[in-house]
Amino acid sequence: MSKHIGIVACSAEGAALCYRTLCTEAPARMGRHMHPEVSMHTHPLAAYMVHIHEGNWDAVADLMLSSARKLAKIGADFAICPDNTIHQAFDRVLDQSPIPWLHIAEEVGRVAVRQGYKCLALAGTKYLMTGPVYPGAVEPFGLSLEIPDDAERQEIDRIIFDELVNGIFTEDSRRYFYSVFQRLKNRGCDAAVLGCTEIPLIVDPADCPLPTLDSTRLLARAALDESLKQG
């Protein structure tokens, strides 16, 4: 029996990609048409954004916990959150959560180490790029981080909230990400963290100047591994 996965969602496109990844990659390990039991709960993105704009991470944690409690009541054994930014509230969640969680940035760090990377270029919301989530998660692995400059951070944040979370993917925005990653490669980065769960929907690893670490799919694969653990 596999463990029941609970998805604490925030934005629709990233959560959908995480769910699809779980369901499409599981059959290779579980058999045709098979995947673990998966349940999802999400509060509106707008509810999260009010608190994120205010820097009220306690309130963000309350929303995450609300979802986790509902998922636990319907049988979820553990939780994942396919949203990097709200992991800033992660430490506030763990002690009160009825079920354990996987941490998206820690999963990225583990894979980065296995693949031999040393210096990661981080792209995500402006809150994520300047926040503590990735430094706290990947520096214990001996990894370093570089982030875009201020103007680039503002434009990436605009693309995420005006376009990507709304399912809008343009060639101009794709090329913008590539130009930022090229500059970070020139500064010594050897891999790019797609640290907004929608970025993998616009960045093609085949065209990107740096190898990519797709936080959305890496979290989904880690959840599949956890679900299939015995005992």
The assigned structural class equals: alpha/beta
Rg over CA atoms: 17 Å
Q: Strand count, sense and closure of the main sheet?
A: 4 strands, parallel
CATH-defined topology of the largest domain = Rossmann fold
The shape is globular
Secondary-structure arrangement, i.e. CATH architecture of the largest domain: 3-Layer(aba) Sandwich
Number of domains: 2
Distance between the termini: 10 Å
For the record, the CATH class of the largest domain is Alpha Beta
Provide the spatial order of strands within the biggest beta sheet.
Answer: 5-4-6-7
- The proportion of residues forming helix, as a percent range, comes to 40-55%
Low-pLDDT residue intervals, each spanning 5 or more residues: none
Average pLDDT level: 97
Count of β-strands? 7
Q: What is the number of helical segments per DSSP (H or I, 4+ residues)?
A: 11
N-to-C order of helices and strands: EHHEHHEHHEHHEHHEEH
Beta-strand content estimate? 5-15%
Q: What do you see in this structure?
A:
With 231 residues, the chain is an alpha/beta fold. It has 2 domains: 5-103 and 218-228, 3-Layer(aba) Sandwich (Rossmann fold), CATH 3.40.50.1860; 104-215, Rossmann fold, CATH 3.40.50. The chain has 11 helices and 7 strands. The chain has helices at 12-25, 27-30, 45-54, 57-73, 90-94, 104-114, 126-129, 133-138, 150-162, 171-186, 215-228; strands spanning 5-9, 38-42, 78-80, 119-123, 144-146, 191-194, 212-214. The protein has a 4-stranded parallel sheet, sandwiched between helices. Helix 6 (104-114) crosses helix 11 (215-228). The longest helix has 17 residues, at 57-73. The chain is globular and about 45 Å long. The chain starts with a strand and ends with a helix.
